[in-house]
Amino acid sequence: MKQAPLPMILITFQVVALSATSSGFSISLPGCPDKCGDVPIPYPFGIGNGCAAASINRFFTITCNSTFHPPRPMISDPSASTEIIDISLERAEMRVYGPVTYNCFSSNTTVMDNYTGGISLVGMPFLPSTARNRFMVIGCNTMGIIGGYTHSTPDPYVAGCYSYCQGINSTANGAPCNGKGCCETTIPTNLIDFGAIFIINQSSVWSFNPCFYAMLAEVGWYNFRQQDLIGRLGFINERAKRGVPLVLDWAIRNGSCPKDGAKAPIGYACVSSNSYCVDAINGPGYMCNCSEGYEGNPYLPTGCQDIDECKLHKQNPKYTELYPCKNGVCRNIPGGYVCKCGIGKRSDGKNSGCRPVLRQAEQVVIGLSVSSVVVIALACMLAMKIQRRKHRKEKELYFKQNGGLKLYDEMRSRQVDTIHILTEKEVKRATENYRDDRVLGCGGQGMVYRGTLDDDKEVAIKKSKVINDNCKEDFVNEIIILSQINHRNIVRLLGCCLEVDVPMLVYEFISNGTLSEFLHSNDRKSVIPLDLRLKIATQSAEALAYIHSSTSRTILHGDVKSLNILLDDDYNAKVADFGASALKPINKDDFILFIQGTLGYLDPESFVSHHLTDKSDVYSFGVVLLELLTRKKALYIDNLGEQKALSHTFIVMFHQKKLCDILDDDIIGDEVMVVLEKLAELAMHCLNPIGDERPTMKEVAERLQTLRRINMQKVSTANPMRMHYPDGESSMSDETKYQSTDTANLALDVDFAR
Q1: Which of 72-81, 301-310, 743-752 tops mean pLDDT?
Q2: Helix (H, G, I), strand (E, B) or coil at 377
Q3: Which fold has domain 404-508?
Q4: 682 with 700: CB under 8 angstroms?
Q5: What CATH architecture is 311-356?
Q6: What is the CATH number of domain 515-752?
Q7: E strand or H helix at 645, and its extent?
Q8: 559 is annotated as an active-site residue
Q9: Which of 116, 531, 569, 725 is the most exposed place for a label (fewest CB within 10 A)?
């Protein structure tokens, strides 16, 4: 058969929610229908205007199609008609009937009919469940390929599977889809649409298998049946008349769970007083659940109601093991129950009943023993109470000395609500009493531990060395300043602990290590593309430019180096370690952060003058640019075993026009040499021995942005295949797709002519 280009069969999906809660609690808004036919419709979903949380997302409004008997609920989407099977509040899932894509042939050259259908998820609160769905293909000698897009990246997702029919007669009905007659594969998270393409070899099985099917369906719904391969549209007419079951995750997509102690934002959906918020399993957003001991609809103001475990135990035998209280007196309490034994009885030790107390003689012996134990216990308790009081006074003294009262006053006056003050007990619990395997790093300023707070939030806790008593007031001022820094490329300060001798700081945890480890680890097998290096450099420069000029008071980093630039899972740069716990006395009229520099990065002008300026950070950042260009450390060992300063070696090689001899071989290429040369020139400007002649960090960031756009244009022109980061992220951004190479080169020339 002559193979013509096959059009992409676009299939997009819409989501459904699962069955409602139990126990007869109200699931819908007052005055609104709670069912369509046999399907319960719980809020935030609703039938008709005013009965759904349409202000959060208009697709929460459900249409009840009464042309069927019984009526069928439908997604309110004018572009498609998607039937809802059921909705679950507990699992935040919706099951719907999804479409089946098919091609049917009557000869080796004629396409008799085909069907492409779909439901668009763009703008909807629904995403196909990755755990409960599979992409399936049914047919002989056919490959099904899907490609689509997700929320998390603009780059296409591609996967597929091959179905063959050799030995099909030996395959029993009900067999799993392992390749004979049908095949299946998984899908990614955050999938918002996909297309399916059939690649078919029909030369040997045309009359036997005229139709081929592709679908996204619930796991376990389909098992192989030979009859599905025979005849035209037999599968559609017999097994998928209304479509195939598809499980979709839904959530409140336009928001996130409030942080501890933070006020709930406007439009927050978890309105029940006995509910809590959890992050969405699939995609952005959050879900609401009733607290333990409560049931109902957490999206309604009084939706979560207390469960009377005592009544359930009496009325339904299935609760006997769940709420054991056989012979005792069961008393219901909000969110739980207590089981107490009556007078003259005691617990049988199994929390399931009571038995008579001991005989009198046994009571006397036990009473005397208990009296002795009580006396000893009282003495121990008194000693412990005295010790606790002493320890409490010591912690209160530390808290005052470390500026805790001043911090409280500032928090009230400036309405600083982003800083969480932890107790010493909470810090020890988070770090498992400072266990060695919790250590993330050890530097000149102190130890950094990985910690887990009580809400399971991962954090980095900095336990600093002793600081001067005169600097403790400045320490509180720095906490206030750092709490007001809000930049995506700066590690956020989350809290502090002040009731210890040396204050501790709590930062957000960045999972992918430091830029130094990424560039200089012993495992140098992975290639780091130039665009990823430019991305890290640009984001780091933007963060430093922000603290230099975009905050209410100028903040200098003072210790810019690759070890203080962290990388998250997507290789986004996060500037860290402002040293607020290791301050030195500074001019009150010029409020900056002062940190002792690191050899190899230290500005020689600052070293001589003992004065830190914003151009000192520019010099140190210039050394980081050299590390990105050469993949060498600031102080490295050359081929002769001698220790060299990277800044000195690079300047010499640059002036000798031997740039290619020191650059990393992985990024050298004819199409990007102009970018590398301009980047080297920028690094040389940053390393100018005269601070006033160096560019500002804002100028450095702007030039790096220009270089990144030029690099993408040149690479995409020379090689249409997109570059990929080590984690698979594409290096191509939307903003570069429409900029011409000539325009970008002109911008580069103008920018560096300044």
Answers
A1: 301-310
A2: helix
A3: Phosphorylase Kinase; domain 1 (3.30.200)
A4: yes
A5: Ribbon (2.10)
A6: 1.10.510.10
A7: strand 643-645
A8: yes
A9: 569
**What single DSSP character describes residue 514?**
B
Residue 489 predicted with pLDDT over 70: yes
Find the farthest-apart pair of alpha carbons in the chain and give their distance in angstroms, rounded.
102
How far CA 374 is from CA of 359, 382, 388, 561, 693, in Å, comes to 22, 12, 20, 61, 79
Active-site pick, 559, 603, 614, 617:
559
Can you give the length of the chain in residues? Answer: 754
CB distance 465 to 446 below 8 Å: yes
Contact between 505 and 580 (Cβ < 8 Å): yes
Tokens of 247: 């499980």
Can you tell me the distance from the alpha carbon of 8 to that of 12, in angstroms, rounded to the nearest whole number?
12
| Cβ(162)–Cβ(214) below 8 Å | no
Alpha-carbon 621 to chain mean position: 29
CA distances for 719 relative to 14, 617, 629, 715, angstroms: 37, 36, 21, 6
CB–CB of 541/701 below 8 Å? yes
Q: What is the pLDDT of residue 624?
A: 96
> Does residue 46 or residue 743 have the better pLDDT?
46
Q: For 583-632, how does the pLDDT look when each residue is reduced to its tens digit (9 = 90+)?
A: 334 454 444 444 467 888 988 888 787 777 889 999 999 999 999 999 99
Per residue, what are the HEC states of 618-642?
A: HHHHHHHHHHHHHCCCCEEECCCCC
- Judged against a pLDDT cut of 90, whether residue 287 lies above it is answered with yes
Domain ranges of the chain: 96-245, 311-356, 404-508, 515-752
Of 20 and 251, which is predicted with more confidence? 251
SS (H, E, C) 365-388: HHHHHHHHHHHHHHHHHHHHHHHH
Nearest Cα neighbor of 633 from 561, 566, 529, 536 is 561
Q: Report the chain's C-alpha Rg in angstroms.
A: 33
Contact (CB, 8 A) for 471 and 585: yes
